[in-house]
Design goal:
Layout lengths: L1 E3 L5 H11 L2 E2 L3 E4 L5 E4 L8 E5 L6 H17 L4 E6 L18 H12 L2 E5 L16 E5 L2 H11 L3 E5 L5 H11 L2 E11 L2 E6 L9 E9 L3 H12 L4 E9 L5 H6 L4 E5 L7 E3 L2 H8 L1
Parallel strand pairs: 1-2, 1-5, 5-6, 6-7, 7-8, 9-10, 9-12, 12-13, 13-14, 14-15
Antiparallel strand pairs: 3-4, 10-11
Helix pairs in contact: 1-8, 2-3, 4-5
This protein binds ribose-5-phosphate (R5P).
Ribose-5-phosphate binds next to β12 and α6.
Length: about 290
Amino acid sequence: MIVTTCGNSIPIAKALAKKLKAKYSPLSISSFPDGDIYLKYNTPVKGKKVIIVQSFQPRSDMSLFDIIFAAETAKDLGAKKVILVAPYLAYMRQDTRFNPGEAISSKIMAKLLNNSIDKIITVDPHIHRYKSLKDIFTISAKKLTADTIIADFIKKKMKNVVIIGPDWESYQWADVIAKQIGAESTCLAKTRYSSRTVTSKLINPIDMKGKNVVIVDDIISTGHTMIEGAKKAKKLGAKSITAIGIHGLFVEHGYEQMKKYFDNIYTTNCIEHKSNKIDVTSLFVKELK
Ligand code: R5P
C-alpha cells in the first residue's frame, strides 16, 4: 500500500501511512511554463493499492484536477486499486439548480471521480438535498463522521455546555453531539440572501444564561453563519461562546472576523488551519485497516 497526496492534508497522509505501516510518498506536482499540469509518482505503484489523501481545500478546483490526474496516472502505472481519502469534499453545497442555467457542481464532481477512482472516503460531507453519497457516486463511497470525536473533545474541555446548530442543516451534528455529552441543544432558522449575507432567528429557545454555548456547524466558509449564532447567544446571556467547525475554510478573513464574536474557535484537521484542535486521522485508520 502506498499513501500519497497532491499537496493538501500532508499531516494526515503521513500519520495514516505510519498507522497503516504503508509507504508515504508524496507526488511531485508542478506546472509547465504555459500552465499545463506536470505530475509524477516518486515510487513504483504497480500492483499496489494507492491511497490519495487530499482535502479539497485550499484550491478546490485544482484539487479535483490533481486528484483525477493522480488517479489516472496510478492506474496507467498498473496500480491495483485507487482510493481517495478526502477529509473535506468540496462542491457538495451546490446540490441543485438554485437559479436557471446553473451547474449542479456536486454531480459533476462526482461524475469525474466515478470515472477515475475506485473508492472515496470522506468526513461529514455536506449532504442536504441528497439522501446519501450513493445519489451521486456509483463507486464505493464511505461517509465518516467526526461527531463522537467532537463530543469527546467538548466533554474534556468544557462544563455547563449547551449546543447550538446555526441552521437546520447543522442540527444533525448539534443534536447528536449534544445527546452524546448529555447537554441541551437547539438550532437557529437561517435565511440566506447570498453567499455572503445570512440572518437567523431562534425559534426554539433554550436557557443560555451563564452557559458555555458551543455552536457547531459542518462548514465554516465566510463565518457569517457562525457570527449570526454568536450574536444570538450573546444576547441571551451566554457565559462564553465557542465555535466548532468540522471543515474550517475561513475564506475572506472569516477567522479574523469570527474572533471578534467568539471566545474560542476550534476545527478538525479535515482542512489544515491554525484552529485545528480535533484530529480525525483515527477515523480513516479504522476504515482502511
Ligand atoms: C451550509 O449550509 C453550511 O452548513 C454552512 O452553514 C455554511 O456553508 C456556512 O457558510 P458561511 O460561513 O459562509 O456563512
